[in-house]
């Protein structure tokens, strides 16, 4: 495979239903903070950040998509030239509903199919179960998430943007899977968190914010 240039750029598109925490995951990674006030993403937001990996530097272009149905028509065009699709769902139910709120998890199948329709197999897909901090409200087990990922042949990890759990490992996992990265002798496996271990967020539209370098 062709050698990756030191300043290789990769487009990551974040997909998933409304309120699953896509923006919060990005905000935690970019700025290491969590916004307790929820504001729905309007349209598409764009940010970028540099990651330093062993002997090379990569630029991650993060595209945060709105989960509301009225913005769905915009999304295929952003998937089309992406290197990575991060499909997030909510492992818990934050609201007192008559029935468990597992819809965001069930809908991940549709998101995977949409990515495959646009990109075929030429894309890295990561299934992310977010909000693991809501332990008492969990509706989707780790095993269910892992089984669905295996069913589609994609990567899987659970996170908590609020607690900062597995956010950096998520992006290291992605970076290690990027084209050309298999030549790395190490991806700092000691920093990877076993997803089987139990654990106790609007930006201006289309505005690029330059994040600091991430020595991950």
From TrEMBL:
Q: Where is this region: Disordered?
A: 197-216
User: Which CDD domains does this one have?
Assistant: Rab6
Keywords of the record, alphabetical order, are: GTP-binding, Nucleotide-binding
Q: Which PROSITE patterns match?
A: RAB, RAS, RHO
**UniProt cross-references to InterPro entries, sorted A to Z:** P-loop_NTPase (IPR027417), Rab (IPR050227), Small_GTP-bd (IPR005225), Small_GTPase (IPR001806)
Where is the protein localized? Endomembrane system
Leader peptide range in chain numbering: none
State the SMART domains in the record: RAB, RAN, RAS, RHO
Instruction: Please state which protein family the record places this protein in.
Output: Belongs to the small GTPase superfamily. Rab family.
For this entry, the protein name equals Uncharacterized protein
